[in-house]
Amino acid sequence: MESPSRPPTSLDWLGPPTDLRPLLPTERAALLDLLGALGPNEWERPTVCPGWQVRDIAAHLLHGQLRRLSHARDGHPAPPFADGETLPAYLARVNGEFVTTARQLSPRLLTDLIGHLGSQADASWAGLDLAAPAGTEVSWAAPGVDPPLWLHLAREYTEAWTHQQQIRDAVGRPGADGPELLRPVLDTFLRALPTTLAPVPAPDGTTVTVTVPGPAGGRWTAVREPERWALRPAPDGPPAAQLRVPAHVLWRLASRVITPDEAAASVETAGERALTDAVLRMVSIVR
């Protein structure tokens, strides 16, 4: 019997691996500069996160560092799920509990703690084999499987970057969206393409391309293979569907800062409508 071209355990359909560890300090430095420049009233501004002000998003970012150090570094167990609780409900509950408690902390203390713990959280990733199983699901990209650690790290990076941008949007301060920091966000969010396209029937060899113009952009291609859609180098020939999505629209769409209908007004599409509509429903966060 011939060996299959790709072993059944391969997750190469997620696309080539990335190592975003070098960017963690850079992204956090931009966050700390932002937080340090906020006035008292800006900390109280509402954000796109329902019920959360700027200070609450900062507290949520601190919570992520604490979870990383407590659970991944120190092996301390995470809070248990309630009976019948789904993952989105669990995350909403534990995140909300921490944010409520952290409202007792001053903006200066929140900023100091993020700065102090950030380097320790970064160090917890050092020396790890990013090809090893993550031990935690990235449901929007690889549902039902244990993905490689690099994908879990990339998801963590996109969460921190996106929340920083939500703060920037709330206080009207652009920044931290240059190619170095933004392109990995777009690349990670688009790892959701195979899962997003899965419900759409298509013959093997069908291709869908997403082009993001600008210095942070690029071209991503999903190809229908016998078992699933997969992220692959663009094959010869025209795609069955193609989309041209501005970078600022793509990250806001994937993180549901804007809806598919709102995004569609700024997206150029061509080809099979069922495929382009599916891409416009892409979600790259747990919800």
Automatic annotation (TrEMBL):
Record domain Mycothiol-dependent maleylpyruvate isomerase metal-binding: where: 26-167
Coiled coil: none
GO molecular function, one term: metal ion binding
Entries under Pfam families matching the protein: MDMPI_N
Signal peptide extent: none
Domain of life of the organism encoding this protein: Bacteria
Keywords, in A-Z order: Isomerase, Pyruvate
Protein name: Maleylpyruvate isomerase family mycothiol-dependent enzyme
